[in-house]
Design goal:
This protein is α+β, with helices and mostly antiparallel strands. It has four domains: about 200 residues, no CATH class; about 300 residues, no CATH class; about 60 residues; about 80 residues, no CATH class. Helix content is about 50%, strand content about 15%. The chain contains 23 helices and 20 strands. The strands form five sheets. Strands 1, 2, 7, 8, 10, 13, 17 and 18 form an eight-stranded antiparallel β-sheet that branches. Strands 3-16-19-20 form a four-stranded antiparallel β-sheet. α14 packs across α15. The protein is elongated. It starts with a helix and ends with a helix.
Amino acid sequence: MTDSARRLQLPILALLLLATFPIVVTAESWPYGALLLFCSIASWRRGALPHPPRAQEILIRVAAVAALIWTLIDWRVRGTTFILCLAHFLIMVAVCKTWERRTVRDLSLLFLMALMLLLISAIVSAELLFPISMIGFLAIGPHAAIRLHLERESDLAAAVHAEAARFAPSSNRIVRFASFAALDARVALVCVVFGMAVFVLTPRIAGRSSAYWLATSHSFTGFDSSNDLSRGGGIFKDDDLVMRVWAWQGDRPLVAEEYQPYLRAYALKQYVAFRRGERTRFGWRPAEQTHVNLIRVKDQEEATNLLAGSLGTSPADEVQLTIMLERRRSNYLFTTYPPLAIHSPQLKDLNKEVSDQSIFTTIGRRRSPLKYSVWSVREKPASLLEALRRERNLVGKPKTPKRIPVSQRVIDQAQQLWAQAGRPDLEDPAGRIEVLRTIARYLQSDEFNYTLDAPARPADAEPIEYFLFTSKAGHCEIYATTMTILCQTLGIPTRYVTGYLGTEFNPVAECFLVRQSDAHAWVEAYVPGNDWMTFDPSPLAAGEYEQKTLWNTVLDYWDFFRYKWISLIVSYDTFSRRELLAEYTNWMTGADVTRPAGLMPRILGGLKDLFYGPPGLSAGQRLFYWAVLSLVLLLVAAVVRFIWRVVVLARSRMARRPAPRPGHRFYRRLVRILSRAGFSPDYGQTPREFANAVAARRSALRPATEAVDYYYALRYGKHSPPAADAERMDRLLVDLEATARRPA
């Protein structure tokens, strides 16, 4: 391997690591990434042996076969998706290949593997890490590809002709890295502009994110639809981001200091005990009586009402939540109570459970990001309460379950709390609210400890009794369950609600960041004249909310750019393309703009609009527009420059086209005559050598040497031969043609 090719080992290995990094982080394939990193560093520091020992070569072959076998096991037995198995196999083959980098061909194979891994990264990774890796790949890849091509051509030239090796860039070092800088920049620019054009014109077919490609049987913490309280033990805190929530009231954004969204999925009111195997388990089940309304989503530009009739709300009182679900593992849409209207271009049909006002889709679980807006209110006016009452009549008046599987100690505890509240009339709204607040304050007192690491319960222990009188420690599920049951034993209609509580606010993006660790459970109680009211008995865990630091600010900016990547790139589909093109078409054609009169004002106004961009853009959007405009202008300039250079080159060649060389037609006629006698000039043979060879083999054709002398006089002589010589040579060629036709 040449010195220049050896210097290419480092950028090729860097390209491998850059292409592998998004896969490793997204799929959490840390062993594969660590193995590739270790082998890359070790093989680079060791250097490639020109001829590895026989034992090492056999070991590499065995490792490659083992990688194939492990990939089949990982795919068929462990259930890993095929695309990830392919990525793991390529990483393991690249590890084997790093130890036998003997020729330029080996480096070319590693470069090809890096390209394939980069393609897989684009498929499986919806994170911001992929564009970062792509930028690094564009910075190193073009130069490495060009140098690999030159090295390959140099080796081929050296194999054909030994003297060609001294012209190779690797030996005389005429071509250096700096000479490739302009070419590398052009190649990278063309790749970026071409990729952007393909991206805009060709949307993602299914909008699939990494959750689709990484979907396995692995269980996740956070929102859980099983509602089984018999699991016991600790809960792992998962910080995986689930959704972003923008909250607005009127034209004013709501921040964490004044608003915390309780994003509910559904509500349950039937606490049951059931047998599973040899154990008695406890959990929540939906009520038997249900009523589901099918909702047809209206036009994409208009929100769809979820309640019939006049609601008596004004836009200034309504709270609009724009929610972007990144990974949706259920069909439920998270809303605040009560949901009044919904809007999303991605949704067609919805189902609404009238009994608890929960909304769920009819299209199955989507693993692509979903964005929708939902409207609600913080204070319910009388007309809205009446609309809710009319719809609630479809399922009957709220009431408590007939049978609650709890012990007498729990019932007695509920009576004590009612007595502690002053034994108010539970049919009176004020008295009912006082009892509810008393029970919530009791559970939030120092007597109980909120923790995710709750002690495990005995096998058949009833969760509520064990929590109230033994452990006195647990998380939101047991707190909400306990309050719901205590209220139901007193005859207060209550229900157990699951969803998420938004507490983390990103001031950069002005949105709430809701993670799996924000999965929450709380209580909704029915109060006459106030509909269902929210009560949260869970106390805040000590130190759960951290103060903002510089690192938190950096993370806020990172999350903001990550959201932009997901919303603009990962979620780009056919509707997004149509909406984008329609918006810019209307702007470019001036459909929504009043143009000034006159030719010059129109031209100046058009140029101003072109360089300033559409009105109403934010600072970040305008910077993005200017970046795209710069790339387009560079592309146009490159195309114009290319066309200009082609035109100039064509004109210069036409201007420099030489006149027919003197004697050229004469020599071609001589060669054609001799070819009829079976003679043709060899490659590299001069005219005189050819004529002498013909005369030596056939004496009758000896006049060909005289004809060649005349050709040299025509071609290289300072003066043209006289006309008599031309006539004589013409007769000589006629005689030669007659002689060539006769058999030898």
